[in-house]
Amino acid sequence: MKRNKLSFEEIERARERILQEYDHYIVRFMKSRKLRNDFEDRYLSAMKSRMDMSLFLHAELTTVRELQRREEERIGKEHNRAADIAGKKKQKKTGSFADRIIAENREKIKKYPDKKVHPEASFEIRKLFGAMSEFEHKSWPDIERCMRKIAPSVFSGPRVILERRIFDLWSDTKEGVSPRLAAYVSLFSRFPRNVRDIEREEQRFIVDSGFLLNDLYREIGLIRTNDILRVDERNFLEKMYEYVHTVIDDFRLNDFKSQ
Fold it and tell me: Is the CB of residue 186 less than 8 Å from the CB of residue 200?
């Protein structure tokens, strides 16, 4: 049977999904970004050679997920060995230290809006989405207007980098959550519930938000003093520049940088 060719949009969506899987793998397991760059090189070679992209992308997605599975299996074995060796006293002290760190982090983000995502959604997810959905609703339209003055076309400048990702991650749709978090919420209603999938989707949302926040911080920094803008617009962008930096610090997202 003849295989239907993927459209360009389908290929791009699959490529972005694989890149997200590599970002998750690199951040969670502290691996080199060379793995992500190698995939990009293979992707370009496949496109140039007119390879069957459905087969190529399926193989690449299978590969990165297998890498994640092996790391999770390895960490699970190491964790079990450590738990067997460690005594109860040491476990108690470690737990106390971890509890203090968690409490300190929760205190830093407590000031942000607590957005209803799901009754069992994590505190960090609720606060991060609360902060950024409010930002997307109240501040992004004015930032986007400033960017439009500098780069009128949506296909050039920072808007092409930011707009679709902001909608996907932080836009408050009629379902009450962003398109990305809708997938996360749906996992709670599955039976049997897969806790690992829920944790993985939480991590993916946090990592992608981290990359987006750092990209946003960089782009606002580049335009905030542009002479095309009025004084009040430059002052507004300066405040947004500081706000985005504060969110990055409070949620410990400083390391998620594209460049």
Answer: no
